[in-house]
């Protein structure tokens, strides 16, 4: 990834307790811009170095929280245990939208290529509206609605429209149901669910028939 770039590695390894100078910020934030340009689904990226300094790259509309201690965040231990692999965290606390909107964060520890020590933490943030847009492109022709579930809790769902089915109207066992037909709000639906490899979440689809 971009964080194995020798220039970025040297910059992150050389950061001390003092406020980073403009040249340092420029190199780190340029790397974040390049990372954002690699995926139009990315809403913002924020990087925290080992001394609590933050660097960000933000698309229009998203607010990034810079003044947090990442080691106090509930997901920090899990990210550290994953040893440089991404973890997926809904509403992680590092980014938010206005008006209120759910955000999915992909968080990883940045490791030194020399001694594998920790150089920082990066969070790649994706707004729920972006996820909804992808779902609409997949299921729009058939009015299919998609939900990302954690157990029986909705993490991400379809846009707020008159056709949106609320979770309270969906049977409790729906996230554990193989492909089948169910009657929801008086309308027959083709229900399908697939267990994701991401954090044990389940993707549920509802299609009118």
Number of helical stretches of at least 4 residues? 4
Helix content: 10-25%
* Percentage of residues in DSSP E strands: 25-35%
Structural class: alpha+beta
Shape: elongated
Report the sheet with the most strands, covering strand number, pairing sense and barrel closure.
Answer: 5 strands, antiparallel
Give me the side-by-side strand order of the main sheet: 2-1-7-6-4
Written description of the protein model:
The chain is an alpha+beta fold and 209 residues long. 21% of the residues lie in helices and 34% in strands. The protein has helices spanning 6-14, 22-37, 76-81, 128-139; strands at 44-49, 54-58, 62-64, 87-90, 95-97, 103-111, 118-127, 145-150, 153-156, 180-184, 187-195, 202-208. Strands 2-1-7-6-4 form a five-stranded antiparallel β-sheet. A hairpin with a 2-residue loop joins strand 8 (145-150) and strand 9 (153-156). It is elongated. The N and C termini lie far apart (44 Å). The model has no long low-confidence stretch (mean pLDDT 83).
Task: Write the topology of this structure.
Blueprint lengths: L5 H9 L7 H16 L6 E6 L4 E5 L3 E3 L11 H6 L5 E4 L4 E3 L5 E9 L6 E10 H12 L5 E6 L2 E4 L23 E5 L2 E9 L6 E7 L1
Antiparallel strand pairs: 1-2, 1-7, 3-5, 4-6, 6-7, 8-9, 8-12, 10-11, 11-12
Helix pairs in contact: 1-2
Task: Give keywords.
209 residues; 5-stranded antiparallel β-sheet; 12 strands; 21% helix
């Amino acid at each position: 990834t971009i964080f194995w770039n020798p220039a970025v590695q040297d910059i992150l390894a050389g950061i001390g307790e003092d406020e980073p100078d403009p040249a340092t910020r420029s190199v780190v934030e340029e790397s974040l811009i390049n990372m954002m340009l690699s995926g139009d689904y990315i809403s913002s990226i924020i990087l925290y170095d080992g001394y609590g300094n933050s660097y960000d790259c933000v698309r229009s509309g998203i607010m990034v929280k810079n003044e947090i201690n990442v080691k106090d965040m509930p997901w920090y231990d899990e990210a550290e245990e994953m040893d440089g692999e991404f973890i997926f965290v809904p509403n992680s606390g590092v980014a938010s939208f206005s008006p209120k909107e759910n955000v999915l964060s992909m968080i990883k520890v940045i490791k030194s290529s020399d001694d594998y020590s920790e150089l920082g933490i990066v969070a790649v943030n994706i707004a729920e509206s972006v996820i909804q847009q992808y779902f609409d492109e997949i299921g729009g022709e058939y009015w299919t609605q998609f939900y990302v579930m954690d157990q029986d809790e909705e993490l991400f769902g379809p846009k707020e429209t008159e056709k949106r089915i609320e979770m309270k109207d969906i049977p409790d066992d729906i996230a554990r149901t193989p492909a089948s037909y169910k009657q929801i709000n008086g309308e027959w639906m083709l229900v399908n669910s697939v267990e994701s490899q991401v954090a044990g979440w389940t993707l549920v689809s509802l299609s009118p028939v």
